[in-house]
């Protein structure tokens, strides 16, 4: 990633900029908080704090850190926009949708079964007579 | 009941921080001393200062709901440090997509059968009319059609409505989420639907590591590439956007390794979090949850080719079996 070089030779990462510290070559935030996205780190820092984020990143494998940062960024932004429910509100909405779709599937399946049984009775009488 | 004052009666927040739990400790109502893991999770993710800051800006009535969501979010992050709640969101979206596809297929089948039935009935009525007219002229003539049609004639004549009420064409009504949702687990259980994945989807997602996780992973990778440029936007036309009132867009990242590990050692935690999975079932309507618009750009998808050949009964039955309720496991 170019940002991993940029923190050493060029501008510091968004995290180090925000924290006003020197961005070293082994900065744990640098690959995931490029200087072009200052808001991303600002949100994450505001909700979770830099030390918590750092601990989480160190707990996961390096190839999983990008996903971890993205999910944290999403949750932070959701919490900022909705301080009461955060991203959990969206989960609730989706759960409702799932339930609604399931009941709809049930009804439609019941209809198709009814159709099959009704049509089966009629075709027997009609086609059976014709062939009989 | 947590006794305040003194280290022996301190809430788990104050115990963790090794400080005196004041009588007006803002965290005491939410972190009972006998459930230290709850606060540990919250502390690991949010931190005390952040929680207090969040609570300070809320009304008294909103604080319990906010804390419930924070506790849930922390619990999920503890179970899945990589994806947290975003993982659950994506799995739910995957389930929704599966269910919608299934509904599309079933409705297409129904439409085909309905069309076939209408065509058959039209021709049947025409034959019936003809044979009736012939029968009037030649009383002793009976046609094979009459033999078979007789049943139908009687049925048709006696029925003022078709034997099979035409179903309305399925149009997915985009759900307009209300401010917030209140529904109890009993409401879910009273539905005939019994698949555990849906009735208690979040807990199932959290505790089950199954093939569906891999499926939703692969599905998410193909359909929801994460775009780094904007950070939060998803340009995939098939993406399901989860938007808050102010337009938070769900990030669809390329999931490399999405593990929902079932931790047997978490039995103790499960006891402690017994009420957490029910949290999602009860979100007070009257809270401040802003409008969350859930927009779907459901895939135009592949439309089923209409079969011109008549579908026999066996095919109907097999279709019904094929499209029976499937739990996403």
Notes on the structure:
The complex is a heterodimer of chains A (132) and B (329). Chain A has 132 residues and is mainly α. Chain A folds into two domains: 7-81, no CATH class; 84-131. In chain A, 72% of the residues lie in helices and 0% in strands. Chain A has helices at 2-9, 14-19, 38-47, 50-59, 65-81, 88-131. Chain A is elongated and about 75 Å long. In chain A, 51% of the residues are buried. Mean pLDDT of chain A is 85; it is low at 1-8 and 125-132. Chain B has 329 residues and is mostly helical. Among the domains of chain B are: 9-79, no CATH class; 84-123. Chain B is built from 13 helices and two strands. A two-stranded antiparallel ribbon of chain B has the order 1-2. The radius of gyration of chain B is 29 Å and the shape is rod-shaped. Residues 1-7, 145-199, 209-214, 222-268, 284-311 and 323-329 of chain B have low confidence and may be disordered. At the A-B interface, α3, α4, α5 and α6 of A face α3, α4, α5, α6 and α13 of B.
In spatial order, strands of the major sheet of chain B run 1-2
Instruction: Return the string of H and E elements of chain B.
Output: HHHHHHHHHHEHHEH
Task: Tell me the span between the first and last alpha carbons of chain A.
Answer: 77 Å
Tell me, briefly, the overall form of chain B. Answer: rod-shaped
* Tally of separate helices of chain A: 6
Number of domains of chain A: 2
Structural class of chain B: mainly alpha
The separation of the N and C termini of chain B measures 41 Å
The biggest sheet of chain B amounts to: 2 strands, antiparallel
Q: Count the strands of chain A?
A: 0
- Assembly category: heterodimer
Q: What order do the helices and strands of chain A follow?
A: HHHHHH
- Approximately how much beta-strand content do the residues of chain A carry? under 5%
Pfam families (chain A): LOB
Domain LOB (chain A): 11-112
Family (chain A): Belongs to the LOB domain-containing protein family.
Protein name (chain A): LOB domain-containing protein
């Amino acid at each position: 990633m170019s940002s991993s070089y940029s923190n050493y030779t060029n501008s510091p990462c968004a995290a180090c900029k925000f924290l006003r510290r020197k961005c070293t070559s082994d900065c744990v935030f640098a690959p995931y908080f490029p200087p072009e996205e200052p808001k991303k780190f600002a949100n994450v820092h505001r909700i979770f704090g830099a030390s918590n984020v750092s601990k989480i990143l160190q707990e996961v494998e390096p190839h999983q850190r990008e996903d971890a940062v993205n999910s944290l960024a999403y949750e932070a932004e959701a919490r900022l926009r909705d301080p009461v429910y955060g991203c959990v509100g969206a989960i609730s909405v989706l759960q409702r949708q799932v339930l609604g779709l399931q009941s709809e599937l049930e009804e439609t399946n019941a209809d198709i079964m009814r159709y099959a049984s009704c049509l089966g009775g009629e075709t027997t009488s009609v086609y059976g007579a014709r062939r009989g | 009941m947590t006794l305040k004052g003194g280290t022996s009666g301190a809430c788990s927040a104050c115990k963790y921080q090794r400080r005196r739990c004041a009588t007006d400790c803002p965290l005491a109502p939410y972190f009972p001393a006998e459930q230290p893991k709850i606060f540990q999770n919250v502390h690991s993710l949010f931190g005390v200062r952040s929680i207090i800051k969040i609570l300070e800006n809320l009304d008294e009535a909103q604080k319990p709901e906010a804390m419930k969501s924070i506790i849930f979010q922390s619990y999920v992050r503890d179970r899945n440090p990589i994806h947290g709640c975003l993982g659950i969101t994506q799995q739910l979206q995957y389930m929704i997509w599966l269910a919608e596809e299934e509904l599309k297929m079933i409705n297409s089948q129904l439409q085909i059968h309905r069309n076939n039935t209408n065509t058959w009935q039209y021709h049947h009525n025409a034959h019936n009319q003809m044979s009736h007219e012939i029968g009037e002229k030649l009383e002793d003539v009976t046609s094979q059609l009459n033999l078979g049609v007789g049943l139908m004639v009687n049925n048709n004549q006696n029925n003022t409505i078709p034997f099979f009420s035409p179903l309305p064409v399925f149009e997915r009504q985009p759900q307009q989420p209300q401010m917030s949702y209140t529904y109890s687990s009993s409401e879910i259980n009273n539905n005939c639907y019994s698949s555990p994945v849906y009735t208690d989807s979040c807990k199932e997602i959290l505790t089950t590591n199954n093939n569906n996780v891999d499926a939703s992973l692969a599905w998410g990778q193909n359909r929801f590439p994460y775009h780094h440029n904007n950070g939060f936007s998803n340009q995939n036309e098939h993406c399901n956007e989860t938007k808050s009132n102010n337009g938070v867009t769900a990030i669809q990242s390329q999931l490399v390794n999405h593990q929902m590990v079932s931790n047997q050692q978490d039995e103790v935690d499960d006891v402690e979090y017994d009420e957490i999975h029910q949290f999602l079932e009860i979100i007070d309507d009257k809270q401040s949850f802003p409008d969350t618009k859930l927009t779907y750009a459901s895939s135009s998808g592949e439309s089923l080719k209409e079969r011109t050949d008549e579908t026999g009964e066996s095919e109907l039955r097999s279709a019904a079996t094929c499209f029976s309720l499937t739990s996403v496991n």
